[in-house]
Design a protein that fits this description.
Radius of gyration: 17 Å
Order of helices and strands: EHEHEHEHHHHHEHEHH
Structural class: alpha/beta
Strand order of the largest sheet: 2-1-3-4-5-6
Largest sheet: 6 strands, parallel
């Protein structure tokens, strides 16, 4: 292992794949050996052995991937569902640091604090399915990309037509959507955390608003550092890859939980 470039594992959100990080990875590679995983049941990832799949199954699969790569403890960064997975891997002792970008899983037992976000995601999923035949042509238009991704990004038009089409194909190839969306799993308290944790919460998150879900996150992991990411939506890698990379690197450079 290259000690000058310690391993950093990236975990994407629901309906996405490792490609969600493609604009961020080049900014991280001078500092880390970067591994982007595709989650269980997602397009290009391993298939679930049981249904319905649960978040724990996705975490199990990610842990098996770490084992297969010979990685014991790594820096972890994840967005949404991927942030949840990163926190659970930290709970299992697999993390040196965690940077969780608008992590899912911080809601009450009845799921009331996720209902609005789930409704928006279901709408986006339905629209993607209905428009699949015309997407290769329609997504060439910046305005269409921006409107199609408006619930998860402020500037969906920042993606190229090819990237937007890949994102649509990843969504359509996800087999665990109904298993995961709207279930009542949640992140249990983690106090004290087993490693330094940063919450990088999107200022304009329309899926998991920081005023609601970020507040719950601080209650359950009170020693985590919360930083608001300005000008970005729920998937900040779309809006501002440089900001995402710097947020991750600030955390990985500072592994001491008492230094901020």
């Amino acid at each position: 292992m290259n000690l000058d470039r310690p391993p950093l594992v990236l975990l994407h959100g629901i309906t996405m794949s490792a490609r969600a990080w493609q604009d961020v990875i080049p900014l991280l590679e001078p500092h880390h050996e970067v591994v982007a995983l595709t989650a269980l049941g997602h397009h290009g990832g391993p298939s679930p052995a049981r249904r319905p799949a649960r978040v724990a199954d996705l975490v199990d699969a990610a842990e098996r991937a770490l084992d297969g790569l010979g990685l014991e403890r790594v820096h972890l960064a994840g967005n949404s569902l991927g942030g949840w997975m990163a926190i659970e891997l930290a709970r299992r002792g697999r993390a040196l640091t965690v940077c969780a970008l608008s992590p899912a899983g911080f809601w009450d037992a009845g799921g009331h604090d996720q209902s609005g976000g789930v409704a928006k995601l279901r709408r986006m999923i339905a629209m993607t399915r209905w428009t699949a035949p015309v997407q290769p042509l329609a997504l060439r238009a910046p305005l269409v990309r921006r409107l199609a991704l408006r619930d998860i990004a402020r500037r969906g038009d920042r993606l190229s037509p090819a990237q937007a089409l890949d994102a649509a194909r990843d969504l359509l190839g996800c087999t665990v959507l109904d298993d995961l969306l709207g279930n009542h799993e949640q992140i249990a308290p983690l106090d004290p955390p087993p490693c330094p944790i940063t919450f990088g919460w999107s200022e304009h998150d329309a899926i998991l608003p920081v005023a609601v879900n970020g507040t719950i996150a601080r209650e359950r992991i009170p020693q985590a550092h919360l930083e608001i990411l300005p000008g970005v939506g729920h998937v900040p890698m779309i809006d501002n890859p440089a900001l995402v990379a710097e947020t991750i690197l600030v955390r990985t450079r500072c592994s001491d939980p008492n230094r901020w």
